[in-house]
Design a protein that fits this description.
Layout lengths: L1 E6 L3 H10 L5 E7 L10 E2 L9 E4 L6 H10 L4 E3 L7 H11 L5 E3 L7 H11 L6 E7 L3 H12 L8 E12 L3 E2 L2 E2 L6 E13 L2 E8 L11 E6 L2 E4 L2 E7 L2 E12 L9 E7 L2 E5 L9 H17 L9 H20 L3 E3 L6
Parallel strand pairs: 1-2, 1-4, 2-3, 4-5, 5-6, 7-12
Antiparallel strand pairs: 7-13, 8-11, 8-19, 9-10, 11-12, 13-14, 14-15, 15-16, 16-17, 17-18
Protein name: Oxidoreductase
Organism: Paractinoplanes rishiriensis
């Protein structure tokens, strides 16, 4: 059993201890909180009161660097919620202080979400040849950058990236937020940020995000991965399989519990033809995709801590995602190209 303690008590911290309760090989010892409160797990005033195998830092952006350093100074591996520091200077300072420790991972879970994990498996299998462009209109900032870099096969690579971004504002009804239905039918101004990311060597990304696009079901989520022999669009692949032979194949999710399927409602597999791209590692839990992704991240972190698996998402990659995300905002603010070059983790 691999144990962890969560620093923080917000909605994201709650997800970690709740999911861990259903994992047979990962245990949450409790939460470190600044002020005493009623929690479903034991509460500690500081990390000095508990000795877990690793720490999950689920605190606000501005508190993240200090929380990470406290764990590292105590010799504890740490999984830090995104982003690991709020500013470019903060990212550089954090890397100087903790980058060489090898103890810091970032809780970037998007590539572990079942649909993305299946798409990534398809791209890595070579069905569309060599990926050269990724377009993401789904989530924001570092999460979208992670998806772009992941599909391009650029994780672990920190070469120059040139960003060109702009913003527009237009009316949009916003029927849903994290808190649920708004009941507001009136369009309100919503900002859309669009950016191109040039990674060099013919590799590029397109970032497209509208305010509250995570929750607003009036905006589709769109993923496009272009390759040398075809492309993946959302849940469909078009590809060249032989001379004069172009085929289109859907990615199919098998969801149990529908119609006369009397199994519990659950995700089973995602397939491309006869190829299984994703198989739910937590059958019977009936978790949504985000819960599957976070549980996968927890399990991979535990395996890494035990020396039984690779690093789930190293600090350098998490920091680079956010550095590029900051460049998108800077480019949109200044209406000029911004190049990310020579970060300290290069």
């Amino acid at each position: 059993m691999t144990s962890f303690v969560v620093v923080g008590a917000g909605w994201r911290a709650e997800m970690y201890w709740r999911l861990a309760a259903s994992l047979p090989d990962v245990e949450c010892l409790g939460a470190v909180v600044r002020t005493p409160r009623e929690l479903p797990v034991p509460a500690f005033a500081s990390l000095d009161e508990v000795r877990p195998d690793f720490v999950v830092a689920a605190v606000p952006w501005e508190a993240s660097p200090a929380t990470i350093l406290a764990a590292v100074e105590g010799g504890l591996p740490v999984l830090a919620e995104t982003p690991p520091a709020p500013t470019a200077d903060g990212l550089a300072a954090l890397w100087r202080a903790a980058g060489g420790s090898g103890l810091v991972q970032v809780a970037e879970q998007y590539l572990m979400v079942p649909a993305h994990a299946a798409r990534l498996a398809a791209v890595r299998s070579g069905v569309i040849g060599e990926a050269s462009q990724v377009q993401v209109s789904s989530t924001h900032q570092y999460h979208a950058v992670s998806l772009i870099r992941g599909y391009l096969g650029s994780l672990g690579s920190f070469g120059p990236v040139t960003v060109r971004a702009s913003r527009t504002t237009a009316p949009l009804v916003d029927p849903l937020t994290r808190d649920g239905w708004t009941g507001d039918p009136q369009p309100r101004p919503a900002t859309t940020t669009i950016a191109t990311l040039d990674f060099g060597d013919g590799r590029s990304g397109l970032y497209d995000f509208t305010d509250n696009q995570w929750h607003n079901q009036l905006r589709f989520r769109r993923i496009l991965v272009r390759g040398s022999h075809g492309e993946l669009r959302d849940d469909e692949v078009v590809r060249l399989v032989a001379p004069r032979t172009i085929v289109r194949t859907p990615l199919v999710r098998r969801q149990t519990g529908y119609d006369l399927d009397l199994d519990d409602f659950d995700t089973d597999t995602i397939t491309l033809g006869d190829q299984v791209l994703f198989r739910n590692p937590f059958p019977g839990q009936r978790w949504n995709d985000e819960e599957i992704a976070i549980a996968t991240l927890l399990r991979r972190t535990a395996a890494w801590v035990r020396g039984e698996g690779p690093a789930p998402y190293p600090l350098a990659d998490g920091a680079h995602d956010h550095l590029i995300a900051l460049a998108i905002e800077e480019s949109a603010d200044t209406d000029r190209a911004v190049t990310v070059a020579g970060p300290p983790w290069l």
